[in-house]
Amino acid sequence: MAHSSFKLVRTQKIDSLNVVVEEYDHIQTGAKHYHLASENDENVFLVALRTMPMDSTGVAHILEHTALCGSKNYPVRDPFFMMIRRSLNTFMNAFTSSDWTAYPFASKNKKDFNNLLSVYLDAVFYASLNEQDFLQEGHRLEFEDPANPESNLMHKGVVYNEMKGAMSSVPSQLWQTLTKYLYPTNTYHFNSGGDPEAILDLSYDELKDFYSKHYHPSNSIIMTYGDIPASEHHDKFSEYLDQFEKSNNKIQVRDEKRYFSPIRVEESYAFNQPDKQTHHVMGWLLGQSINLEEQLEAHFLSSLLLENSSSPLRHALETSDLGLAPSPLCGLEDTNKEMCFVCGIEGSEAVNRDDVEELILNTLKQVCIDGVSEEQVESVLHQLELSQREVGGDGYPFGLQIILSAISACTHHSDPVALLDLDPELDRLREKAGQKGFVKGLIEKYLINNNHRVTLTFKPDLNLEKNKLNAEQDALKAIRDNLTDSDVKRIVTQGVELKERQLQKDDESILPKVGLEDVSDSLHVPTGEYFEILNAQNVECFEQGTNGVSYFQVVKRLPNLSADELLLLPMITSYLTEVGLNNSDYMEVQHRQSLDVGGISAFSTIREDITDSKNVIAYWTLSGKALSRKHKAFISLIEDTLLTANFINSARIKDLLAQSLSRKEQSISGQGHSLAMSIASSGISAVSNLSDRVSGLPALLRLREMVRDSEDSTKLNELCEKLQCLYKKINAAKSEYLAVSDKSNLSDLKHILNTEWKKDVGASEGTLVLAAHSSKVKQAWVVPGQSNFCSKVYPTVGPNHADAPALSILAGVLKNGFLHTAIREQGGAYGGGASQDSANGAFKFYSYRDPRVAGTFKDFDRSIDWFKSTDHESDAIE
């Protein structure tokens, strides 16, 4: 039944997603509500605001943080983080994109959902925006010891330090620099997250003005998913929205001014290795993302050219001597109002710019001349269909994934339903793709004849980081030298008052919460059945709703491996699906993968036995997924990959090594806290030590050495032989099998397995044995970046020990009760906390994008003293 405050505009069923989309208008303000009705009990909510800043002060990003620091009905200092521990949420976060800001959450508990809904709506539409929260989350001048004016003067702020860390990532700098030129006049020209230098220019009044203009229901988009009826949502929404009048201020992105001819630009980034570290990228501005026909054409073209190693443009970039690997930016960006296509190369030299540009343009022209096969076209269409159907994971609830795929259309005042219901447009694209000259026409239209093109050369500068640091210190010194006594007093007073506010005890009882009585005393655990296929091999089968996608895994218990073999294991898992099979080269295999499956990968798992920490449980898994109509080809590919991989192609292994090194180096700034914890844990046990050696920073050093050694053909061939031998050794182990599909397709998958799967060669029952390892670790690693990652680890107990649950609870109490305030709010780090890793018997402290080092380690120790000397209320434990 329709709610009096809302008007139903339309309903539309989308079969491929198994949802019914209901579109509503809030009558008084014009706020849009899209409800995706589903039988799924994991309900999702998202409210988004169109936020399109025209500078790089990070105003939208800082506002996203500050809005969550207290509101009209919940005037506590940190309701967002307080609700994390008072909730049964399956997801809670907030995002700042280039042109929107969103506040999403998900929960399977209806009471919890409504609790979070009230907090989120109040935060967005009735934010307190206390100036002290702006100083904490945005930026402030403060003495290192806030009460001591003789200590160093510093810039502090959570977002300020977050963006110093984020912009230490080379791909982030590369993308921001490219878009600065691709979008010369509109919002995408600027860094929506905030450039650290520009963040310092943002004032508190400017933040409030931005909030008043953008955080209004008339500028909002509300989206929900799940089995709670829209009418129930409207009861809650109206409590907030009905208090507003309609605003006629239409916020939108203007179309970009187009170049009349391509441009070439050159800029620098901070890096300590000058040789072969230059990036050359080319970017084209395309059509509008809200035009579904153009968007699918752009996706089709990007996939055709770049999807895998058999794609013509990626193949040219991977095999070129002009650089080490394709650029991390390669592909289509379709979330901005006007899309862009990017390709290029990294690990190059500045003098190669013209040659790289010529390589890319000549490859495009050659594709126009040669055309592409029907199979290549079909493989791209197949991947587009699969991306529409799969109920994915990646840490996001399925409903939120659907919502995020539609939010861009809403942002630009277009129809999100069209972007969700891809099947009709995919059918039209398939029809057009069968016409002669279609691909040639796309390449000429979007790329060759498109003059809005930027070629960016991004060079390393050995002195840039030092120059930036010196400039920051000189600026602080100039400020310090010009401070009057009253200025010093004001900064001290502000710092002391902020610290007092951060330490104050808020009345949490004003926030809603769930209790133990709201938690189900039963847990649904999927049950499977064993199905016997030929040769007396058993497959464990699970029937689950998968939207027409089937999953299959082969799992092998790892045999005992030598120290050298263990270090090579990550290469086997990473390269298995990147090399040739049987008599097919790797390009043919990549094409086969694209045509027949939605994904295929290998991974290993090594952990201590939870029943006996002296033993190791180690598995190697080959995993894949495919549409149900592809079952036969899918199983055939899994089997060939399992049995016939060829690691002897030295040229291919050399290319893969270079690509691995590039990815590893780029991952540091985003995974710094994990790497720090890995190092600190490496002395705890043999498993932790191995994990650090194969996936931590030592692995990066080893990769660099292997890339250098790959220039020696003898050493490279020896490596290939070792990889092939290790692959065969793993294959000799006995296999177990897992299959998952929906009710209508599981029987067909069983039939294919029973008729097509050959007897697995694996039969041995070997067990991996690791030598005992225990040592103290005290290390510091210097990595490129403007922020730090700290970790301290204590050996504790495994999951079966009686103390394991208590330690897990202790981690939460330390994080919520002490570390969040000390490390994030007072110390200025983007994040910090503690966790009990029972799988490895380790209690871990960590910080993320942290301006401090020594102070953070002191806070780790202080948190333990705080816990021991404080009487903790039962609420903190519950």
Structure description:
The protein is of the alpha+beta class. The chain is 44% helix and 21% strand. Strands 1, 2, 3, 4, 5, 6, 7 and 10 form an 8-stranded mixed beta sheet that branches. Helix 1 packs across helix 8, helix 13 packs antiparallel against helix 16 and helix 13 crosses helix 21. The longest helix has 23 residues. The mean pLDDT is 91.
- What fraction of the residues are assigned to beta strands by DSSP? 15-25%
Uncertain segments are none
Find the structural class using helix and strand composition. Answer: alpha+beta
The N- to C-terminal Cα distance equals 39 Å
Number of H- or I-type helical stretches: 31
**What integer value in Å does the Rg equal?**
28 Å
Q: Tell me, briefly, the overall form.
A: globular
- What characterizes the major β-sheet? 8 strands, mixed
Percent of residues in helical segments? Answer: 40-55%
Mean pLDDT: 91
Keyword list:
878 residues, globular, 21% strand, 44% helix, six-stranded mixed sheet, alpha+beta, 27 strands
Summarize the structure.
This protein is α+β, with helices and mostly antiparallel strands and 878 residues long. It contains 31 helices and 27 strands. The strands form six sheets. Strands 1, 2, 3, 4, 5, 6, 7 and 10 form an eight-stranded mixed β-sheet that branches. Strands 11, 12, 13, 14, 15 and 16 form a six-stranded mixed β-sheet that branches. A six-stranded mixed β-sheet has the order 17-18-24-19-22-21.
